[in-house]
Each structure stands twice: as C-alpha cells, then as structure tokens.
Amino acid sequence: MSSERPSRLFRNMSAKIAAIPMALTALVVFLGGTAWTVAYSFTKSKLLPKWDLVGLDQYERLWSTKRWMVSIENLAVYGAGMLVLSFVLGFVLACLMDQKIRFENTFRTIMLYPFALSFIVTGLIWQWILNPDFGIQHIVRSAGWESFTFDPLYTADWAIFGVMLAALWQGSGLVMVLMLAGLRGIDQEIWKAARIDGIPAWKIYVMIIIPMMRPVFITALVLVTSGIIKVYDLVVAQTSGGPGLATEMPAKYVYDYMFRAQNLGQAFAASTMMLLAVMIVVIPWAMMEFGGKRRG
C-alpha cells in the first residue's frame, strides 16, 4: 500500500504542476477575498475600508433594519416557490422528453435556450410581457375582454410572483436537462421488470425512479438554491426592488449599501450573511457526495 501512494502522488505530474497557478489564484482570490470581507464586516468602514473595529454592531444594525428583514421575507417566498415549481416543472418536462418524442432535440433546445440568456435580458423581456400598457393585459383587452387585469409587477402583493415567473422561464430548462440526464442513466431493464409486474407508471416514478435519481436531485438543489440566494440582476431589470420594497432582495441590499449608501461595513455584514446561507447548502451537499464516496 505504501508503495502505491507515492506512485499515485507523482502520476500526471505535468498536469498537476500546470494547475498550480490556477489553484493559487483561486485560493488567493476566493479565500482571501472572503476572509477580507468577513474581517471588515466587523468594522465601521464607510466609503473606503478602515480597520476600526466595532464588534457585532454592523450585524445588530443589519437585523434591526426593516429593509433587510423584508428582503429576507421576499427571498423566502421567492425561494420556496422557485424550488417547488422549478423541480416539479423540470421533472415533468424531463419525463415527457424521456418518452422518445419526435423532434426531441428541437424541443430540448427551445426549453434550454432561455438559460443561455442573461438575467438582465430575461428581466427586460418579462418586464415588457407583464407591462399593462403593451403586454399580456393590453393584448387580451384589445381582443375584447376589457375587464381583464394582469399586472403583477405593478401590484405590491403580486410583484414577487412576477419575478418568480421570469425566473422559472429561464431556470426550468436547466432543471429539465439535469433530470433528463438522470432518467436516461436508469437501466431500461428496471422499466421492463416494473411493467411486467403490472406496477402503475406513477408508482414506478415515486417508488423506484425518484429514489434512484437522488444525486441528480441534490445537484439540482444546490444549483437552484445558490441561484436563489444571489438573485439580483433579474430583480433590478424587472422592478428595481419595487413597488416599494415588494421585491427587495439581500443581494440588492448589499449592492445599494456598498455603492450608493457608501457603507462598506454594512454591505460586508450583509454579504457575510449571504455567504453563510450558501455554506449551509453547499457544505452538507459536499459531505454527502464526497464523504459517501470516500466511505465507499
């Protein structure tokens, strides 16, 4: 065993040496930048970083600010809706695609195309679609239904769902592709055996297929959750956080305090809370994935 370990260590040495600059850059930029941000979140830095420690004052102020609390509530509503709807929609679309339909490649490309667009473009597109003056409401009223009303981005109680609609349009294609890859990786003999036993299709999915696709679901969960936590440009393009604070998000709070309010300490405290939220998602996933493989 001891002779095998050195041989593994020196295997592909040229590739490992070539990767050293990239690895060092990633460590310095990511870990160094993260440590710097967290450290200065305990200071009262304003326009420029200033090492003037104030302890937890920035965090106390953060969690006592109405705007931050509203942004957390909005993120919870948006996140819960996005997780449930994107997974349900993505899985259903993947199941339909898995039926070997005609023009599958065309449909798959169409469904995945919105994901290739930036969130800014997606936000502007759906801002136009949901605009009551020339969007869906205008088209339906022009067709004769004068009492029809559909302006979620201009109604505080429904604005967050207008943002969610645009995010679903863009992100469901990615979830669909991940689920489809998982479905295509399942042995066809399992399907044949289940059909011979007379098991209904919905039971096959619930009792057999979905448990076998656990790694795919976990990967999709990490990707979707990370996107939810850092959502910013979609909100700015559609509503700029309005009406009022109806679509305010933590990432927008960070940006506004960093560049508009020129309060770096408060922005760093908020970004540290966002980092903590991401770590709560990523670390358990990494432990399940890599820890399980190591034990295996």
UniProtKB/TrEMBL annotation:
It comes from the Bacteria. One of its GO terms (biological process) is transmembrane transport. Residues 72-285 form the ABC transmembrane type-1 domain. SUPFAM superfamilies: MetI-like. GO terms for cellular component: plasma membrane. It holds the Pfam family BPD_transp_1. The chain crosses the membrane at residues 20-42, 75-97, 109-129, 158-183, 204-229, 267-287. It is found in: Cell membrane. PROSITE patterns: ABC_TM1. Keywords: Cell membrane, Membrane, Transmembrane, Transmembrane helix, Transport. It is a multi-pass membrane protein. InterPro entries: ABC_transporter_permease, MetI-like, MetI-like_sf. Signal peptide: none annotated. Belongs to the binding-protein-dependent transport system permease family. This is Sugar ABC transporter permease.
